[in-house]
Fold this protein.
Amino acid sequence: MSERTIALVTGANKGIGYEIAAGLGALGWRVGVGARDDQRRETAVAKLRAGGVDAFGVPLDVTDDASVAAAARLLETEAGGLDVLVNNAGITGGEPQHPVGVDIETVRAAVEVNVIGVVRVVEAMLPLLRRSASPRIVNMSSGVGSLTRQSASVGEHQTGPLSVAYAPSKTMLNAVTIQYARALADTNILVNAACPGFTATDLNAFRGVRTPQQGAAIAIRLATLPDDGPTGGYFEDAGVIPW
Ligand code: NAP
């Protein structure tokens, strides 16, 4: 195991993921830039390196078994292991998301990336994380995944658009986070879910009100938790989010 902390951020070529990579790199960590497109990945790695980050590219499509397995091999053989995994890659699945009349493929796409993709990456990386002194898993969820907030949005207190793909996929990701935290409770691996807040990125056609740097802050906090930090939690900048 390397003496320096090694992180992998999925979907790190742009948006919040890029800023998480930059933030972890600023701590002196080695940062794997997980990205599926060669050109976008190389551009991001070059930009991070120009900013002083010890970044390296990790070809990674979270929907592809072979790609994820190859990423795990690369981390083990070329990077020296893995301490911190940030599952940031995510998609909305497309529009419209209204529950009535939704295209099933919209639901399937969101679940494939936002849920199954995370499980696939966690499973591939767990053997490496188990060898780390202070391993962390951060799952980039969203406040819209909160069942409390979803049910509060019915009727007069509507807080967000109806969504039968993206929001429920993040609800399932929250459950996946709890399940891994329980399964790994007797290890030193801390597993938590994060909400970045409504952030201006490609995901929402830059309608968000926070900067990607602001959106990255909570994931960086959870990636750098002390050994006695929480596990199985769901957090935004302001604190705990109700499930
Ligand atoms: P973004 O700018 O669209 O970035 C998404 C990233 O995920 C991109 O790097 C994208 O790569 C990558 N990705 C998508 N599918 C992938 C796959 N199959 N394999 C590997 N990478 C894949 O969106 P963002 O706003 O930064 O989103 C980052 C995370 O924050 C997501 O999980 C999102 O759900 C969550 N989030 C965002 C907001 C917000 O307001 N923006 C709010 C709550 C939660 P490509 O460039 O190749 O497409």
The chain is about 40% helix and 15% strand. The mean pLDDT is 96.
